[in-house]
Design brief:
alpha+beta, 1 helix
């Protein structure tokens, strides 16, 4: 009996982390707005698709599309790490750091450049 209790206590955090990450998965639509001025940045309507990264627990793939004249144009795919402590997705890459936090059916994120400049903010709603 004691073994079963210890086993459940050890597995609970792992299950909780996986469950928290699953809440980010799916299709999200919203707005990506430029914060930095005097740049080539444009405000966009976007669709993000988040999926598990096979064989890499705690990571997701984020495929981002922008909508131009009613058509989805893929901007690329990035790998995000799930930060369980802060309950957010984080992607550090050559241009800067993306951070996304989820709150119920809404997700908000920002891109901060390597020099600390906040470049872009994204607000998304989960799609069915």
């Amino acid at each position: 009996m004691l073994f079963a209790i210890v086993l459940l206590a050890l597995l609970a955090p792992a299950a909780s982390g996986a469950d928290d990450l699953s809440r980010f998965l799916g299709k999200w639509r919203g707005d990506s707005s430029c914060v930095a001025r005097n740049t080539a940045c444009h405000d966009e309507t976007v669709i993000y698709r988040l999926a598990n990264l096979p064989n890499k627990p705690g990571y997701v793939l984020v495929s981002a599309d922008k909508i131009v004249n009613g058509n989805a144009i893929n901007m690329g795919t990035l790998e995000f790490r799930h930060d369980q402590t802060q309950q957010m997705l984080v992607c550090e890459y050559s241009q800067g750091v993306w951070r996304f936090k989820r709150n119920r059916g809404r997700m908000e994120g920002k891109l901060t450049l390597q020099d600390g400049t906040e470049f872009r903010r994204v607000t998304l709603q989960r799609e069915p």
